[in-house]
Design a protein that fits this description.
The complex is a heterodimer. Chain A is mainly β. Chain A has strands at residues 9-13, 18-23, 31-38, 45-50, 55-56, 61-64, 70-75, 84-92, 105-110. Chain A has a 5-stranded mixed sheet, with no helix packed on it. A 4-stranded antiparallel sheet of chain A has the order 2-7-6-5, with no helix packed on it. Chain A is globular, with a radius of gyration of 13 Å. By secondary structure, chain B is an all-beta fold. The chains are: A mainly beta, B mainly beta.
Chain lengths: 111, 115
């Protein structure tokens, strides 16, 4: 699977939107973009995924660049509970079955 | 619908001892994964099962590690002759995949400390 690049850390004020970027310049046409997050002392948790079009669910929105070389996870209104490490992961539907996590972005939410 | 459960949540053992962890996936999930996570790092893939068949192993899974998933339900991960370097969080995940992509649901993990 192609690799992703994320900032090591970001901060956000509570109740403000958060935009978490991810670069994946070597993405292939069959790579899905997945986001997981890991709250302190818990296992990772699925957030959202997409292929080409922007996606929305109850947790977040995923904005995918037109050339698919980057994406942004959007938390519309950060809460203290959103403080976590966020991982951007590419999954080729015909390739590896495991998730390659990398080191992710540690999001700090300031009250 | 209950999530993925793992037991024990914590295990402290002495170097050289054997340990076994259990994972109970979400019912009817055909895939089960094991990952290992050390402090400050993201989880690293160890192995996965499709039903009862172990289809892939990472090079991280040394000969001291063995995993089973009898009858395609729960899974166990055993580490023989533990070493201090085995200290980590061991995570289990399950998913249902028939084609395309899938979503993995993770358990809370088993934290292993080898003294």
């Amino acid at each position: 699977d192609a690799k992703t690049t994320q900032p090591n850390s970001m901060e956000s004020n509570e109740e403000e939107p958060v935009h978490l970027p991810c670069n994946h310049s070597t993405i292939s046409g069959t790579d899905y973009i997945h986001w997981y997050r890991q709250l302190p002392s818990q296992g990772p948790e699925y957030v959202i995924h997409g292929l080409t079009s922007n996606v929305n669910n109850r947790m977040a929105s995923l904005a995918i660049a037109e050339d698919r070389k980057s994406s942004t996870l959007i938390l519309h209104r950060a809460t203290l509970r959103d403080a976590a490490v966020y991982y951007c992961i590419l999954r080729d539907v015909s390739g590896a079955n495991n998730l390659f996590f990398g080191t992710g972005t540690r999001l700090t939410v300031i009250p | 619908d209950t999530g993925v459960s793992q037991n024990p949540r914590h295990k402290i053992t002495k170097r050289g001892q054997n340990v076994t962890f259990r994972c109970d996936p979400i019912s009817e999930h055909n895939r089960l994964y094991w990952y290992r996570q050390t402090l400050g790092q993201g989880p690293e893939f160890l192995t996965y099962f499709q039903n009862e068949a172990q289809l892939e192993k990472s090079r991280l899974l040394s000969d001291r590690f063995s995993a089973e998933r009898p009858k395609g339900s729960f899974s166990t991960l055993e580490i023989q002759r533990t070493e201090q370097g085995d200290s980590a969080m061991y995570l289990c995940a399950s998913s249902y995949r028939t084609g395309g992509t899938d979503t993995q649901y993770f358990g809370p993990g088993t934290r292993l400390t080898v003294l």
